[in-house]
Each structure stands twice: as C-alpha cells, then as structure tokens.
C-alpha cells in the first residue's frame, strides 16, 4: 500500500512538447540546430511545433485534472528565458512570463510543479562559441541560469531537478553523436561532458543551499536514468561483476560522485587500464581533486530515477583497440530474454522485477536516499493510433507493483511519474515513438489530444492514489470502462481524421483544381483565338 503523501504524476520536457521554437524571443537550442540538419531524424522531422504546448497550457492542464495527478514534471527551456545562454547578454521576459503562467496555472489546479532545469536543450550559441559541455565555462553559465530560475520561480517551485538523464547528454551527444549536438568524440567526449555536468550540478546545489534554501525551503536533486543489469549466470562471479559494471557505468557514473564523493572504483580501474594500453599518460576518465570530491559529495536532496527496462549481462573482453569507446571500456555484453514482452520499440522490454532490484541497489549503495521516480513508461512504434493500449496499462501496473514491493523492502520512494502525458517528439526518433497517455493527431494543424485507455484507466490511477486494497470486480469494472472509452475515442478520432482530410481537400485540392481549370481555359482560349485570327 502506498504511504500517505506519495506523489503520483506525469511528465514531459520543453523541447519535446512546447514547439514555438523561434517565437516570443526564444533563442535556438542545439536540438533546433540538430533537427534542422537533413538526415538526423527520420523523415527530417523536427520539434519546431512539436505538440504546440506553448499555446496549449490550459488545455493540457485540463488533461492533468482528468488524470487526477498530484504533480506534473516539466522542464524549462534555457534558451527560451536566456536566448544566448548568457545572463549578462539577454534575459527574455516573455519566456519568464510563460513559465510563471504555467506554474501559476498548475498551482491553481492543486498540481505540484516538479521542474527540471535541463532536459537537453542547450542554447546553440554556447555550443558554437564554447563547445557546449566540453567546456568548463558551462558551469558558471548554467549556475547563472539556475539562479535566475530560483529567483523568478522558487517562491512557488519546491522540487528542482538540475539535469534530466545526463547519461544521454554525455554519451549520445558527445560519444555516438546520435543526439544533439551530434559530436563523435570517441572515448573521451562523454567522460569530459559528464565531468562538467557533475561539477555544474554541485555548484547549483551549493548556490541554492547558501542563497535560497532558508527563504524558499525547497529541494534540489538530479534525475538519472538507468536500466537494471542482471547477470546471465548468477552463480558466475565474472557475470556478477559484469552486471555490477553495467550499473556503475550507467547509474554510478553520476550517482557515485554525488552520493559517495568520486567515480566508481570499477570505472576508474577499467578506463584507466584501457587508457594505459593505448599509451595515454593519463586516464580518459577525468579525476576530481580532494577539494572537488568534498564539494560534490552530498549535493542532492533527493534522487530522481528514470527506468524503462532491464538487460541480462555477461563478461565480454574487447580486443585492444586504438580507437577507444565508452562502449568497449566496460567489457560486457547485453542480452535480452526473447520471452520478455516487447510491446513497443526493440530496446524497451517489459521486465518489472528489474525495477525493484534497481531501487534496492540504490538503497544499499547510496544510503537510502529520498527517491522520486521521474520517468517510467513504454512507447508504441506503429503509425496508426493505438488508443486501446491495454499493454501499456499492464506495463505500468507491473512496474508500480514493484515499487510497492520496494517500499516494503524499506526503499524511500516518495513519488512516481508516468512518462509521458502526451505523445511527443522523441528526439532522434522523431514522432515514430509514442509514450503518451494521450494521443496527438500531428497531421491536424490544431494538434487535438485524445485519451488512450491508459489515460483513463481508473484502475491504475486509483490503485496509486488509494491507501487501501482494491477488489478484483472494481479493477474489472475500471478496465471495462477504459476499453469502452478508448473504443468511442477511436471512432471520434476516425471522424476527426475524415474531417481533417475533407478540410485538406477543401483548402488545398479544390483551389488547385480550380486554378488548373482556369489555366486550361486560358490555354484553350489562346489556341482558339490563334486559329481564328
């Protein structure tokens, strides 16, 4: 049974939903620049308009009220309130007003805002001029931005996240180049970016602690996303060690410095040894000074956790390579069980039991910190809308049930965020993956929202909110209502699609046909006049 005061909510991020990429004084982000380059995203899709969330705040808050959530996790777009990323150059008052209005609307509807300062949309100017997270100067630029947010919004926002999933920022932005800014700095780029992000996080925590905490009484944490690694053979020490490395190279990379003062020993050993084999004088993994270790340790009032799936892990020795890589540094291979349900994309298997093990690992490793689950959900990849998403309901119920077990284990989980409120722009996958509890018809210029069964599944919602046992007949009744609703919505969506199609015919096809008819008449008239002249 969930403890009293447990927060239940949904989340999203600025770039994925807001749109209005160049409106009202917003500066370009690295994701604007990245998606505007051809070939980076399937069908060259962009987040230029995304879900039009910038113009639909009130509509989306009505959806949150329908869901009866306690909180909403959103992110602030750095270039929307600081177009160049540098406070001394420009502050965009219209951007600040937008987030003020959003926060106020949430609170007026009794929804607690949980705010991330960074969900991947670095101002493009900072990337062009300084090299983004490869440059240590980001620490002060970001700290100025964070302090502006604390000043403008901190009287109402009491839950702050410095960075959302920095692993992806570092590894996919600066190692593989799959994400913005699209750099392939193999073997060192990801480690350097992560090093600067960890130092930045610590500086922002200390800024809040010394300047704002006494007055505002809020909390500052970080949100780390990690799968669980399970040894292929639990009786094999080498497989158990490999599974440990899997977790340490994902979660421990950021959590260990923040909660224990330094990078995991296994990371230092493996990257150090591989660097020496390459003939490098120092490790590709940077080091913290004694003063930095002390400064960084303990700089999180809570730990945000994003979790989606699990892998089986075994030892795999990579041959010595001159070309170094984060992916060959940890000497392991990942496997999946073909019997695991995979309702959506190939990477996202439903393995609920891995979540409980991850939460218990955090409890043991990091002194049982306060945990908010900041991202958990599953996507579909089919092109036609799937409103009757019973498999998503099963996924969410399975993972929530493992949180209940972890709570009984003594893990200090304080809240859960389903990912995500809306179907939205999924980074380098474009609109091809859909995580939303609400479907958006992106072909319709009005971007209407339609509830999926998961969005109206009162069983999931009420199990989360109640502190009592729910009977099987109740669950069956809620399930039946959810399926009836999604069937009706499907019919409504089909009708709307037909209307949209007819509007397109009216707005585009008919004028085109009419114009062609006029041109043909003119040509025939000219031909006629020539023959009779």
TrEMBL record:
Q: Where, by residue number, is the active site?
A: 375 (nucleophile)
List residues traversing the bilayer.
508-529
Q: What is its EC number?
A: 3.2.1.21, 3.2.1.45, 3.2.1.46
Q: Which reaction does it catalyse?
A: beta-D-glucosyl-(1<->1)-N-octadecanoylsphing-4-enine + H2O = N-octadecanoylsphing-4-enine + D-glucose; a beta-D-glucosyl-(1<->1')-N-acylsphing-4-enine + H2O = an N-acylsphing-4-enine + D-glucose; a beta-D-galactosyl-(1<->1')-N-acylsphing-4-enine + H2O = an N-acylsphing-4-enine + D-galactose; beta-D-glucosyl-(1<->1)-sphing-4-enine + H2O = sphing-4-enine + D-glucose
Q: Which UniProt keywords apply?
A: Glycosidase, Hydrolase, Membrane, Transmembrane, Transmembrane helix
List GO molecular-function terms, semicolon-separated.
beta-glucosidase activity; galactosylceramidase activity; glucosylceramidase activity
Q: What class of enzyme is it?
A: hydrolase
An example GO BP is: carbohydrate catabolic process
What PROSITE patterns does the entry give?
GLYCOSYL_HYDROL_F1_1, GLYCOSYL_HYDROL_F1_2
Family listed: Belongs to the glycosyl hydrolase 1 family. Klotho subfamily.
Please state what the protein is called: Cytosolic beta-glucosidase
Superkingdom as given in the UniProt entry: Eukaryota
């Amino acid at each position: 049974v969930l403890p009293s005061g447990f927060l239940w909510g949904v989340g999203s991020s600025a770039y994925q939903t807001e749109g209005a990429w160049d409106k009202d004084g917003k500066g370009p982000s690295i994701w604007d620049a990245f998606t505007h380059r051809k070939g980076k995203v399937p069908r060259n899709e962009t987040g230029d308009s995304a879900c039009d969330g910038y113009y639909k705040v009130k509509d989306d808050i009505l959806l949150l009220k329908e869901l009866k959530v306690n909180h909403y996790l959103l992110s602030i777009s750095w270039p929307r309130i600081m177009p160049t990323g540098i406070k001394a150059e420009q502050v965009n008052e219209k951007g600040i007003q937008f987030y003020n209005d959003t926060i106020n609307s949430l609170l007026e509807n009794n929804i607690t805002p949980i705010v991330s300062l960074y969900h991947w949309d670095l101002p493009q100017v900072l990337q062009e001029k300084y090299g983004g997270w490869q440059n240590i100067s980001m620490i002060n630029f970001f700290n100025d931005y964070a302090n502006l947010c604390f000043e403008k919004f901190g009287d109402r926002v009491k839950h702050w996240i410095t960075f959302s999933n920095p692993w992806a920022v570092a590894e996919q932005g600066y190692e593989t180049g799959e994400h913005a800014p699209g750099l392939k700095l193999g073997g060192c780029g990801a480690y350097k970016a992560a090093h600067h992000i960890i130092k930045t996080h610590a500086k922002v925590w200390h800024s809040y602690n010394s300047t704002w905490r006494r007055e505002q009484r809020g909390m500052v944490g970080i949100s780390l996303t990690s799968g669980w690694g399970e040894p292929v053979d639990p009786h094999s020490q080498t497989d158990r060690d490999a599974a440990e490395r899997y977790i340490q190279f994902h979660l421990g990379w950021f959590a260990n410095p923040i909660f224990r003062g330094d990078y995991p020993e296994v990371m230092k050993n493996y990257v150090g040894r591989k660097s020496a084999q390459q003939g490098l004088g120092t490790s590709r993994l940077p080091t913290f000074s004694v003063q930095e270790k002390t400064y960084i340790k303990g700089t999180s009032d809570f730990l945000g956790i994003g979790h989606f799936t699990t892998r089986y892990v075994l030892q795999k020795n990579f041959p010595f390579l001159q070309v170094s890589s984060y992916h060959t540094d940890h000497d392991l291979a990942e496997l999946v069980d073909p019997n695991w349900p995979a309702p959506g994309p190939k990477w996202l298997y439903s393995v609920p039991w891995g979540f409980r093990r991850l939460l218990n690992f955090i409890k043991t490793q990091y002194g049982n910190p306060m945990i908010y689950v900041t991202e958990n959900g599953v996507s579909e990849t089919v092109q036609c809308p799937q409103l009757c998403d019973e498999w998503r309901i099963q996924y969410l119920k399975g993972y929530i049930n493992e949180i209940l077990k972890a709570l009984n284990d003594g893990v200090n989980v304080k809240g859960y965020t389903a990912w995500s409120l809306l179907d939205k722009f999924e980074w380098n996958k474009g609109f091809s993956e859909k995580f939303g509890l609400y479907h958006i018809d992106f072909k319709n210029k009005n971007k209407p929202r339609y509830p999926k069964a998961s969005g109206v599944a009162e069983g999931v919602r009420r199990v989360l909110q109640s502190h009592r046992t729910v009977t099987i007949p109740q669950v069956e009744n809620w399930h039946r209502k959810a399926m009836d609703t999604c069937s009706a919505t499907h019919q409504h969506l089909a009708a709307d699609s037909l209307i949209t199609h007819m509007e397109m015919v009216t707005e585009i096809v008919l004028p085109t046909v009419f114009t062609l008819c006029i041109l043909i008449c003119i040509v025939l008239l000219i031909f006629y006049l020539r023959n009779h002249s």
